[in-house]
Write a structure and sequence with these properties.
By secondary structure, the protein is of the alpha+beta class. It contains four helices and seven strands; from the N terminus they run H-E-H-H-E-H-E-E-E-E-E.
């Protein structure tokens, strides 16, 4: 899994939190449109790839992946933009960090128009993923939250903890998805 996909995961979690609230009829009270998210993550562990997948790589590819994952362990900050649409907010199960084909179960612990806290677990064969998240709407244009994602396959487990804060930029998303 690419390092950048964890950042997408964080934004997916924010949209997921909004979706969890929407699923219960308690939609988070945030504006739709272009959002900028500042995400601080701390990761540890090994890339969750099976031994079979690792054997398929050339020695050079494997060394590059192991070096990249090792270099990415520790704190990291990214700023990204994401388009939050009414469709994304109203759609159920928008847990974007889950891989295609994974079977997921979510548990919403709390949900109001200003707060969502929950968790999700997914699996596909030997692959496992669990997420815990908590988001708070400061006002319709500002959201803060925390998350913890653990992905594993076999003996390889990668843990990513993060904090994010986001603010609404405007109603038009342009080319940003």
């Amino acid at each position: 899994m690419k390092r950048g996909s964890w950042i997408g995961c964080a934004v997916g979690l924010m949209v997921s939190a909004a979706t969890a609230a929407a699923a219960s009829g308690k939609s988070l009270d945030i504006k739709t449109g272009l959002w900028e998210m500042s995400v601080v993550t701390e990761s540890s562990g090994k890339l969750p790839m099976s031994d079979e997948e690792m054997r398929k790589l050339t020695p050079r590819q494997r060394a590059a992946i192991e070096k990249a994952v090792g270099a990415n362990n520790g704190p990291r900050t990214r700023v990204i933009k994401s388009c939050v649409t009414r469709e994304k907010l109203d759609r159920h199960n928008v847990f974007e960090s889950a891989e295609a084909g994974m079977t997921c179960n979510n548990k919403k612990l709390t949900e109001t128009r200003t707060d969502v806290t929950g968790s999700i677990t997914c699996s596909k064969g030997a692959k496992r993923m669990s997420e815990e998240f908590s988001y708070h709407v400061r006002d319709r244009e500002h959201v803060v939250g925390t998350f913890h994602v653990v992905r594993s396959e076999g003996a390889n487990t990668l843990s990513v903890k993060g904090k994010q804060s986001g603010h609404w930029i405007g109603a038009a998303c342009g080319a940003t998805k």
